[in-house]
Amino acid sequence: MEKADKLDQKLYTKESYAKLLDSVEKAKIILVSGTAEAVSQTIVSIEDAILNLAVKANADEVKAYVDQIVVEDASKYTSKTYEQYEDAYHTLIALSNDLDNLSVEQFNQAKTAFETAYKNLVIKDDTQNVGEPSDTPSTNDNNKLGVYVGLVVLSTGLMLVLLKKSILRFKKSSLIR
After folding, report:
1. Which of 13, 66, 73, 95 is least surrounded by Cβ atoms within 10 Å, i.e. has the fewest?
2. d(CA 6, CA 11)
3. Under a CB-based contact definition with an 8 Å cutoff, are residues 37 and 63 in contact?
4. Which pLDDT tens digit goes with each residue over 154-170?
5. What is the pTM of this model?
6. What are the residue boundaries of the structural domains of the chain, listed by start?
């Protein structure tokens, strides 16, 4: 009980610390009129409550993280991936609304789930209905790499022609003198 009394209540979730206080109150009653076996069980109960104390998440960090979130536009993503994203978002928000009972572990799990759902968002393909296979394979027409490669090849060819003309002019001017 002495060990339990030295713990700082502010560091732990309200719920986990309440369980410890409950165990300590029961122990005080049992110490007065309980058997040796009951006292032993009470000590184990207090030790378990101490081991199960959940460190409270830093409220400022949680608020800062939640405040910086910009919710994505549902119309841009497939319904399945957006639903997972939205569920993870709502879970994170619900947990952040009860900061007295939000542990570091719970916050980290919710944060990771949200970030994973964000990374897994799939952009809708506007050229076809989602879920229906396309009759033609993707040709990647929107890729501009071919245009750039073509321009580089054309420029290189033009430079070679101009270089050859310059060499020929130089040779002619050398022969005339």
Report:
1. 73
2. 12
3. no
4. 667 667 666 676 676 66
5. 0.62
6. 2-51, 59-119, 144-177
